[in-house]
Design brief:
1209 residues, alpha+beta, Multidrug efflux transporter AcrB transmembrane fold, four-stranded antiparallel beta sheet, 36 helices, elongated, NPC1_MLD, lipid transporter activity, steroid metabolism
Length: 1209
């Protein structure tokens, strides 16, 4: 009867006095006709018309009355079929009209599953029209009917239709009893009076059934059954029983093991054992070989106590390669001796000024997308496609509020207004708010987004059953889902939620759009309001907050705050260089022998090389970045300081020969050390130029800037700095004080080499200890062990960069990320996007996408549903919506969504559901006999714009405005050129999960595309974060490529500049590889993730390693000492002391200062990682390399007589 329209009633025992006194007789009605509005119910969603109590015989239906019954209840054969054409019922034509109206509301969401829709309608028809109404008051198979409907989906939301019919319980907590209880509660806005329902299990009865009441045992269809009216079984997405047998996804790959142990660890142990075995065999063979030579009187050693592997190299052993080495050294030395006499300060200044002038057009890239995502990368192309066709992703501003231990609080709305210069008027949220239902509903307030739905646990419900009687639709007309509005609850018990999530979504605009600045300004004002409230001691909430601009703002803020730290770091390095370069022969000559101007000149050379590089690339249009400003000066300073120390210390240790001019001495010294400086600088420069092959913009631009800066640093050192050193030497020769050159001291400069403090210590103590027989063996064992252990650790390094690390310590964003991970119950949205070429307007095209009755079992949305069944593997938490499904449901004549004006000025045009039925008598489409409705191509193109522009409401919840109007892009011919389907990821906590989710979504899209290949479906996932996390899919191979490209020139250049000395080149390369591998191993131990910033530092590590290694390798190769050990001692003492003073001690003080930086990125990737690089470089260059050379170093060059070697030493 009409009192039960839109209510699923099972075994109801009416609590009203009328029913308790009713007589229960076969063929008698309890109610008949309508008696008017129920005065006890206010705020109902539809007029609560109650039936008239009328205990009388059922009426025989004829003519139009019988026709209407067959139209409304055609699937209820018990009512419409009569053997003798005598049909009796207890419902009037008006009741049938009201019943049809109320059924239309539910059919809009249930029609996609025919058996559910018919079960639901059948209950109403029996309840309203049964001829035995007084005897059987709608007793039915409750659980079967409930089960047929419980899985029916609402494509627009990915939720369940049953959630609209279960009140506060929603879908997950809904049961058959709760379902019916909601239908009988007049506070639901639909039932005209209160009804109590009682489910009676078969064969059981907790309470006696009233006399005369016969439980109705009519048939209820299962969701996998065809209907009596010919409708097909429900689809898999709406009915689990209809799903095909789909095998479970294969389990994830098991960890690599060998006999139950970690396989990589076992392999690393085997490698260590093999290397140690080879080393022991080498020692034994060398010992035996040298023992035999002693017996024959050959190869007598200069020092009998030296190591067993030491041997004297005789001139007849010299090969052609050795002669090439000597020729190369002669040529380079002669070249630099002539070069060193040039005084080119003015010319250098002119060149630097010309290049640095490009800084006036310097472009600094701060957009993270431009920094870390290549323009031609897949993620960027997909983002550009999405932004072009659907518009940029909206801007998100959020507040997550909690009130621990406090009572509830009434929150006043944020009323933000400000004067906008771009708009030349006062701007408010309405100017930039993302409001998909505008302009139909443009009266939005800030707090209307979520607060009106705080207690609405079932957002799709027509009306929530609470004491407040809240509507479950937000002010902007769309549902608000609990998992987006509240957090901190268990088992979907939203009333116990600990946090309220307020989201203010703004439209996003291109950066050159004036409204982009308005959006930024609104976000600035919003942050001010929130921060002022947070500082208020009377604040009733604890909360976290963010704005779309917060990430970029915080990064820029901390960069500016940490600039003084970098300045202090450079100042410390400068002070060290000035102090360390001084000779200090006596107290009276301190101001004469100090090297303040030389140190300042060296710093200026480094600065000029960086400015020249930045200016040049500004001229050619390659933008810079904050990473370049922070890293490149540090790198060039490390390289430049090393060369400065090597040159200055070599000059101080040299004695001017009789009759030799100062310029000639500097040229001779330069000829001795410049080839080594060229070796390192050229290796590093080529290394960085090859590193520019990287696809990541930040790495590429860094490599280009660093390569040119290192090259310019070497050129300026060979010109301007040599000239400056010559001027300073003339000042020192004239005994003039530094800074006050007019003041002279009387004490003359000593005419003996000044070895300083470090060189004697290393020559007398360190080198002999390091190269002692037992020490060398221990060093080899330790470093081989470190290398093998680092290989194991390297394979376990975490890949990624958590966004928390980009924030400075104490940033409000850190608290927001903490709240987000704790309280947010769903992950970021992911859009599955189709491109032009897929024909949606054909039946096959629609079936390949949709998931309702008649759709392909492995359609696109159904495949996404299958993936959502395994969220721990697919990272899909909520399956995608589907405008195709809702469009088909919207067209279904069972609902009143799509109708056509029958007369008037709009005749033949679309008629919205809000219009009276008398104006719109024609449905858009006829009812299909099998229940599978599909428009033809003409109907598809005709009605799709109406669907997309139809605002959803109670009469037609399937309208596409807001949910789909921006999800479908059509060309001028009405063909769809782009479309998107939105799903949600599971909550993603760290960058590893974001990367895995991206990978799995791409695999899912690829699998769907392969199935739909015959229909030209090109599908890809689009997510706002893809451009940031895509790099982690390839960063391992990218890093291996970049580092390999950096290692290659170090080997080639070393071999060429040492005259094709392959052995020295290989040992040089091996040591640098070990430094790099050990660095990554320590990254694992020190929780330093591998990412693009780490890759930049690893490329830098290769460059700095060249400084630690190549100078000593060349010094060893050119040494004329008779044994490997003595040559290693000489190289360690002479060149090792300069490397230690120039590279290690220059870097360490500056690095230690960075520990005080506020930015976590600087602390981790500049302090920690650079400290690791410097310490490992120093350990390998000053400990491992001399020992390695003492065992396996190149042969001595003895192709000429010794007197000719005095300047090569």
């Amino acid at each position: 009867h009409s009192s039960l329209r839109h209510a699923v009633c099972v075994t109801p025992l009416f609590s009203t006095q009328v029913l308790s006194e009713a007589q229960h007789e076969a063929g008698y009605c309890s109610f008949y006709e309508e008696c008017g509005r129920n005065p006890l119910i206010n705020g109902s969603l539809i007029t609560p018309i109650v039936p008239c109590y009328d205990h009388s015989r059922a009426r025989r239906l004829t003519g139009n009355h019988y026709k209407r019954l067959k139209e409304v209840c055609r699937f209820s054969s018990e009512l419409t079929y009569s053997k003798f054409n005598n049909t009796y019922a207890c419902c009037s034509v008006q009741q049938l009209q009201s019943l049809e109206t109320s059924l239309t509301l539910s059919k809009a969401v249930l029609v996609r599953c025919p058996s559910c829709s018919e079960n639901f309608a059948h209950l109403h028809c029996i309840n309203t029209c049964s001829p035995d109404q007084s005897q059987v008051v709608n007793v039915t198979k409750a659980v079967v009917a409930f089960n047929s409907c419980k899985n029916v989906k609402i494509p627009a939301t990915g939720g369940y239709a049953i959630a609209t019919m279960c009140g506060r319980y929603g879908a997950s907590l809904c049961t058959a009893q709760r379902w019916y209880d909601f239908q009988g509660d007049s506070s639901n806005g639909l039932a005209p009076l209160d009804l109590d329902f009682k489910l009676i299990k078969e064969g059981e009865s907790s309470e006696p059934i009233p006399d005369g009441v016969i439980p109705y045992n009519g048939k209820a269809l299962g969701c996998n059954e065809t209907t009596t009216s010919g409708g097909q079984a429900c689809s898999c997405q709406d009915c689990v029983e209809s799903c095909p047998s789909v095998p479970n996804p294969p389990p994830p790959d098991a960890p690599f093991t060998i006999q139950g142990a970690d396989g990589v660890l076992v392999i690393c142990i085997i490698i260590f054992c093999v290397l140690m075995l080879f080393f022991v065999i080498y020692l034994v063979v060398s010992y035996c070989k040298n023992g035999k030579k002693k017996e024959k009187g050959e190869g007598k050693l200069k020092d009998q106590k030296s190591d067993v592997t030491e041997r004297i190299i005789r001139p007849e052993e010299v090969t052609c390669i050795d002669r090439n080495s000597l020729a190369a050294q002669d040529f380079l030395s002669l070249l630099f001796r002539r070069w060193g006499t040039l005084m080119v300060l003015l010319a250098s200044a002119v060149v630097v000024a010309a290049l640095a002038a490009g800084l006036i057009s310097l472009e600094l890239t701060t957009d993270p997308v431009e920094l870390w995502s290549a323009p031609n990368s897949r993620a960027r192309e997909e983002k550009n496609f999405h932004d072009t066709h659907f518009g940029p992703f909206y801007r998100t501003n959020q507040l997550i509020l909690t009130a621990p231990g406090r009572k509830g609080h009434i929150y006043d709305s944020l009323l933000i207004s400000f004067f906008s210069k771009d708009l030349n008027r006062t701007a408010t949220l309405a100017d930039v708010c993302y409001a998909p239902l505008n302009p139909i509903n443009s009266t939005l307030t800030d707090s209307s987004l979520f607060l009106s739905n705080l207690l609405c646990s079932s957002p799709l419900s027509f009306k929530d059953i609470t004491d407040l009687g809240l509507s479950c639709m937000a002010d902007y007309g769309a549902p608000v889902f609990p998992f987006l509005a509240v957090g901190g609850y268990n088992n979907e018990d939203y009333t116990d939620a600990e946090a309220l999530i307020m989201t203010f979504s703004l439209n996003n605009y291109a950066r050159d759009n004036p409204k982009f600045k308005v959006a930024l300004q609104w976000e600035t004002e919003y942050l001010k309001v929130v921060q002022d409230y947070q500082k208020n001691p009377k604040a009733n909430f604890t909360f976290a907050y963010m704005a779309e601009r917060s990430l970029e703002d915080e990064i820029n803020r901390t960069t500016a705050e940490d600039i003084p730290i970098f300045m202090i770091s450079y100042a410390v390095i400068f002070v060290y260089i000035v102090v360390a370069l001084g000779e200090y022969s006596s107290c009276s000559r301190i101001l004469v022998d100090s090297k303040f101007l030389v140190g300042l000149g060296g710093i200026l050379v480094v600065g000029c090389s960086v400015l020249s590089s930045m200016g040049f690339y500004s001229w050619v249009g390659i933008p810079s970045s904050l990473v370049i400003l922070q890293v490149v000066p540090f790198l060039v300073l490390a390289v430049g300081a090393d060369n400065i120390f090597i040159l200055v210390l070599e000059y101080q240790r040299d004695v001017r020969r009789p009759g030799e001019k100062r310029e000639e001495q500097i040229g001779r010294v330069l000829g001795s050390v410049a080839p080594s400086m060229l070796l390192c600088s050229l290796s590093e420069s080529v290394c960085f130029f090859l590193g520019a092959l990287s696809t990541m913009p930040a790495v590429r631009s860094f490599a280009l800037y660093a390569a040119l800066a290192v090259l310019m640093d070497f050129i300026l050192q060979m010109t301007a700095f040599v000239a400056l050193l010559s001027l300073d030497a003339r000042r020192q020769d004239n005994n003039r004080c530094e800074l006050v050159c007019c003041v002279k001291v009387s004490k003359e400069r000593p005419r003996k080499p000044n070895e300083g403090l470090l060189l004697p210590l290393m020559r007398k103590y360190y080198a002999p200890f390091l190269l002692h027989t037992f020490t060398r063996i221990i060093v080899m064992v330790v470093f081989i062990f470190m290398f093998c252990a680092s290989i194991f650790l390297m394979l376990n390094v975490k890949v990624g960069l958590d966004q928390e690390l980009a924030m400075p310590q104490g940033s409000y964003m850190l608290e927001y990320f903490k709240y987000l991970n704790k309280y947010f119950e769903v992950g970021v949205p992911v859009y599955f996007v189709t491109k032009k070429g897929y024909n949606f307007s054909t039946v096959a095209g629609m079936n390949g996408i949709c998931s309702s009755v008649g759709c392909d079992q492995f359609s696109m949305t159904q495949k996404i549903q299958y993936a959502a069944n395994y969220p721990d593997r697919s990272y899909v938490g909520i399956p995608s919506n589907s405008w195709v499904d809702d469009f088909v449901d919207w067209l279904n004549p069972a609902s009143r969504c799509c109708r056509i004006y029958s007369f008037g000025e709009n005749k033949g045009k679309f008629c919205p559901a809000s219009e009276s039925s008398f104006l719109c008598l024609t449905k858009c489409m006829a009812t299909p006999p099998d229940g599978v409705l599909r428009p033809d191509e003409a109907e598809f193109k005709r009605f799709l714009p109406d669907f997309l522009g139809n605002r959803p409401d109670l009469q037609c919840p399937k309208g596409g405005l807001g949910a789909y109007d921006t999800a479908v892009v059509r060309d001028e011919n009405g063909d769809i050129i782009a479309s998107r389907f939105m799903a949600y990821h599971t909550p993603l906590i760290n960058s590893q999960e974001y990367t895995a989710a991206l990978k799995m979504s791409r695999e899912l899209a690829y699998n769907i595309t392969m199935i739909s290949e015959r229909r030209s479906a090109r599908l890809h996932p689009s997510r706002v974060t893809n451009v940031f996390y895509e790099q982690y899919l390839t960063i391992v191979s990218e890093g291996l490529f970049n580092i390999s490209m950096c290692l290659l020139p170090t080997f080639v250049v070393c071999c060429l500049l040492l005259g094709l000395d392959l052995r020295s080149g290989l040992l040089n390369l091996l040591t640098i590889i070990m430094i790099t591998v050990d660095t990554v191993g320590v990254m694992t131990l020190w929780s330093i993730d591998y990412n693009a910033v780490a890759l930049i530092n690893l490329v830098t590590a290769v460059g700095i390693s060249v400084e630690f290694v190549s100078h000593i390798t060349r010094s060893f190769a050119l040494s004329t000492k008779p044994t490997h050990v003595e040559r290693a001692k000489e190289a360690t003492a002479n060149m090792g002391s300069a490397v230690f003073a120039g590279v290690a001690m220059t870097n360490l003080p500056g690095i230690l200062v960075l520990a005080f930086a506020k930015a976590q990125l600087i602390q981790i990737f500049f302090f920690r990682l650079n400290l690791v690089i410097t310490l490992l470089g120093m350990a390998h260059g000053l400990i491992f390399l001399p020992v390695l050379l003492s065992y396996f170093g190149s042969l001595i060059i003895l192709c000429v007589e010794a007197p000719q070697w005095h300047w090569v030493r």
